[in-house]
Design brief:
This protein has 10 helices and no strands. With 232 residues, the protein is mainly alpha-helical.
C-alpha cells in the first residue's frame, strides 16, 4: 500500500474513533442526567444495603461501561479488555498506582495540615468500600481514561486530549451537584471543580506513563478514600 493509501486508511480509522467518542459523550451525559433526575434518589434510598449497592452500580455499569464495550467490539473492532489496558502491564500499573498514591496522599495531608493545623479523620461507611473506593473508580476510569482519552488521542495531541477528558470528568459531576445537591455551582463548587480537574489531568498522565488502567484505578480510589476520611 502506498503512503497516500495508508494515510487515508489511518484517517478513516481515526474518524471512527471521533464518531464513537462524540456519540459516547452524548450518551453518557444524557443517560446519567436522566438517571440522576428521576430514579437515583429512590435507588439510594433502598433500605437493603446489598440491594442498593447492586442496583446502583448495575445502572452505572449499563450507562458508562456497556456502551464502551459495545462500541469497541462492534463499531471500532477492538478487543475491549486489551484496548482499555486492563490486561496489560498489570504489575507495573499496580506499582505506578501505589507510588503515585503515596505521593498524592502526602501532598493532600500536607495541604490540609497547612490550612487547618490538624486532621480529624472520619469513619468510612461500609457502602463506600464497595462503591466509591472500588466499583465506581473502575467504572469511571474505563469511561474516561480507558476509552475517551485514548479515543481523543487518535486525532489530537496527548495533552489536549488529556485536558478535554479532564474537563468532561468535571462536567459529569454537574448533574449531581445541580439536581441532587441543589447547590449553586459558583462560587461553592469552584474549588471542587479545580480539584477534580487536577485529579483528571493527573490520572491521564499516570495512564500515559503506566500504560495500565489499574494505575488510575488505584490512584482514583486513594483520592476517594482520602476525601471520605477527611471530609466525610
Amino acid at each position: 500500500m502506498n503512503d497516500k493509501g495508508y494515510l487515508a486508511k489511518v484517517y478513516s480509522f481515526n474518524s471512527v474513533f471521533f464518531f464513537c467518542a462524540v456519540v459516547y459523550v452524548g450518551l453518557i451525559f444524557g443517560l446519567w442526567t436522566a438517571y440522576v433526575s428521576t430514579v437515583y434518589t429512590s435507588v439510594v434510598g433502598i433500605g437493603n444495603l446489598p440491594a442498593r449497592i447492586f442496583l446502583n452500580e448495575f445502572i452505572r455499569i449499563c450507562i458508562f461501561v456497556a456502551p464502551v464495550f459495545l462500541l469497541l467490539k462492534f463499531v471500532i473492532g477492538e478487543k475491549p479488555i486489551s484496548f482499555l489496558k486492563l490486561d496489560k502491564n498489570i504489575r507495573s500499573g499496580i506499582l505506578w498506582g501505589i507510588s503515585a498514591s503515596i505521593v498524592y496522599a502526602m501532598l493532600v495531608l500536607a495541604r490540609i495540615l497547612l490550612a487547618t493545623g490538624s486532621i480529624n479523620p472520619k469513619p468510612v461507611p461500609l457502602e463506600a468500600w464497595f462503591t466509591a473506593l472500588t466499583v465506581a473508580t473502575l467504572i469511571e476510569e474505563i469511561a474516561f481514561r480507558g476509552f475517551l482519552l485514548q479515543a481523543f488521542e487518535r486525532f489530537m495531541s496527548f495533552w489536549i486530549a488529556n485536558l478535554l477528558t479532564a474537563i468532561l470528568f468535571v462536567a459529569i459531576h454537574f448533574p449531581g451537584w445541580i439536581i441532587i445537591g441543589k447547590a449553586p455551582l459558583l462560587p461553592d463548587k469552584m474549588m471542587a471543580m479545580a480539584e477534580i480537574l487536577f485529579l483528571g489531568l493527573l490520572l491521564g498522565f499516570l495512564f500515559k506513563r503506566a500504560q495500565s488502567l489499574w494505575a488510575c484505578v488505584i490512584l482514583h480510589s486513594t483520592n476517594n478514600l482520602l476525601s471520605t476520611i477527611l471530609f466525610g
